[in-house]
Automatic annotation (TrEMBL):
Gene Ontology biological process terms in this record: putrescine biosynthetic process from arginine, via agmatine
Highest taxon above the source species: Eukaryota
Entry GO MF terms: agmatinase activity; metal ion binding
UniProt record similarity statement: Belongs to the arginase family. Agmatinase subfamily.
Entries under InterPro entries matching the protein: Ureohydrolase, Ureohydrolase_dom_sf, Ureohydrolase_Mn_BS
Assigned keywords, A-Z: Hydrolase, Metal-binding
Organism: Caloenas nicobarica
Pfam families per the UniProt record, alphabetical: Arginase
Protein name: SPEB protein
Length: 193
């Protein structure tokens, strides 16, 4: 539910127990900005703060679905410079993400992994109830492929952020968000489904 800022303190706590973790990050935005309106901590900066605090195993960070507006002309450069794998939305259009998740699984190995899913990673045709909708996003089926593709990995936590039900009178975004959270719970280690 909350904005993506919540991932930063969660990963601080996770890193206290597990050390730097891998990350599967689904989002329309890279969330690696330095500042907005003079603030260093805001919903567009959590991954930069996590890198600076040593919370992420940077060679095991994958960002999927990035597109749309940004704070600068090269919105993916910071992450790429850190060793993140960036998969822009246009590389996902019109195809299954199962092959991509096979590669992600190999990249993650058996080390601790966190999943952070911003609902705006999905196209607003499916999830308009968010504060920063961006056209040409992922489909719900692709979201399921991503989450289900993480089953069997050493997932130590997950979140789903940026759902704003008041922006979607149909209730579809909240329904989709609840279903994606359920799917995340189902892929946690030790859960039998």
């Amino acid at each position: 539910g909350g904005d993506h800022t919540i991932t930063y303190p969660i990963l601080q706590a996770v890193a206290e127990k597990h050390g730097p973790v891998g990350l599967v990050h689904v989002d329309a935005h890279a969330d690696t900005a330095e500042r907005a309106l003079g603030e260093r901590i805001f919903h567009g900066s959590p991954l930069r703060r996590c890198v600076q605090d040593g919370l992420l195993d940077r060679g095991r960070v994958v960002q999927i679905g990035l597109r749309g507006s940004s704070y600068g002309p090269q919105p993916y450069k910071y992450g790429q410079d850190q060793g993140f794998r960036v998969v822009p939305a246009e590389q996902c259009w019109g195809k299954s993400l199962v092959p991509l998740l096979r590669e992600v699984r190999a990249q993650m190995g058996d080390k601790p992994l966190y999943i952070s899913f911003d609902i705006d990673g999905l196209d607003p045709a499916y999830a308009p109830g968010t504060g920063t909708p961006e056209i040409a996003g992922l489909t719900p089926a692709q979201a399921l492929e991503i989450i289900r593709g993480c089953k069997g990995l050493n997932i130590v936590g997950c979140d789903l952020v940026e759902v704003a039900p008041m922006y979607d009178v149909s209730g579809n975004t909240a329904l989709l968000g609840a279903n994606l959270l359920f799917e995340m719970l189902c892929v946690l280690p030790g859960v039998t489904t």
